[in-house]
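Have a close read of the entry that follows and walk me through the local backbone shapes. See right below:
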Amino acid sequence: MENNHKTTGKVAGIIANLVIVETNGPVSQNEICFIQHQGVPLMAEVIKILGRNAYVQVFESTRGLKCGTEVIFEGHMLEVTLGPGILSKNYDGLQNDLDKMDGVFLRRGEYTDPLDRDKRWNFTPIAKPGDQVSAGDWLGEVSENGMPHKIMVPFKMTGNYTVKSVTPAGQHKVDDTIATITDENGHAHKITMVQKWPVKMAIRQYKEKPRPFKLLETGVRCIDTLNPITEGGTGFIPGPFGTGKTVLQHAISKQAEADIVIIAACGERANEVVEVFTEFPELEDPRTGKKLIERTTIIANTSNMPVAAREASVYTAMTLGEYYRNMGLRVLLMADSTSRWAQALREMSNRLEELPGPDAFPMDLSAIVSNFYSRAGYVILNNGVSGSITFIGTVSPAGGNLKEPVTESTRKAARCFYGLSQARADSKRYPAIDAIDSYSKYLEYPEVQSYLDHHVGDTWLTNVIKSKDILLRGKEAREQINILGDDGVPLEFHERFWKSELIDFVILQQDAFDKIDASTPMERQKYMLEKVLEVADASFDFDNFEEVGSYFKQIINQFKQINYAEFNSEKFNAYMTELNTMIQSHLN
């Protein structure tokens, strides 16, 4: 009887996981419905409406589904449940708690509650009776794995409200009333710790969204030094299979200066996602000393899960990120791989018989990708506190072709491009980011330049540009040496090549298995870059090209020892003294 007011329909056609439903009432775009297949509800989303026919993408297998099956429309879009208890959870793309499910495989039509309704949280009030509040304003706070989880006025509430009462500090469940607020008409609204929000809509309950300007330290030198990303910035990592996209994302997740980490595994191979599930609970958080999983949420949709759920997973992850951003926290969102998301879009577009774009991807692929990336950013909340979502996605272009549509569409949307090179990966030069092809558009922002001048050093940008120039000149010299032979070029070419190798081995390459070299703070990056450039600027006296190579190999080896030594320790200073002696020995 409770469904009498809801629109219903009957299955009229089935094309894989696209189902055509003949409706008997109004339905809206992106509305959620349940197909009642043999007593098992299959969740689906409306993606196209033609007259009385609604085309829905089913988030489950449609095997055995028949025409005439009843469909019930819910009257709302795909929503996530927001509240305390999201951290440390493993969800699928529809926010089902995977840890509450039994068995190896997901059962069709099984949906679990994303939150623990019985757990009691230690609530502390923030707002006071009489305060004026609006959507997104903080009413209270609970501690979630050591993080301050703010309880907010639900994002769906419009207009201004007055706080009538707030529950005093104490233990409460998520469904308990923690505050009562009244609207302008005097109607009272009871607020709990839980709210819902549609994933396809951005949460915009903030005062201002300025351009990002703060450097986000990742501890990865080839990113922080040459092509930095900002808090609230966007970047992407394209590269062929086996070049280290997932490993690089793991390194950034572990080391970056973020409060919350959200990992969206949207269609990667199952074994890679299993690695995330098994490794993250074991990884120690270098910032807190606890386990990294305590401030991490994983959204998992592997390649063998339904295509439609794969598309939903990136939106679910972004909405969770926006929720924590509105608490004034710094969120790092990693998506691996957005190519699988784009393939899901292509599959549904083809089934809808839409006009195909390049490589059969949707014509509006660029717009979809840009709209999604635009949801990241640095915001200033209503109370003046700042929060941010830094989004880094990976792209897996077929055959390493960086001209394919997904890479090109993402390149237009993201501000940072970290292209992984197959040649660098094959020669074991990790991280395999190609420093010459990669870029960060944030270096062009005046506010970022000002921030770097003030917080890193006023010569920093000049040194970064000089380093890139040395790398480019070294690449040109190497090509000349390869063509003309070692004896066919002047000694200056060999010196130029080895100076670029010095920057490559000392700055760009990093040992993720060494405790010290795995993460490098900005102070040390600045010191080391200045020292390397001091060598690159020096004029040396060599008799032949063999002497050039031999000398620079010794210098590089000494620098590598320095990289493994704790900054400013006795060992570090001893290595540095030896290095200075080596440099002096061949100066002009």
In short: The first helix runs from residue 221 to 226.
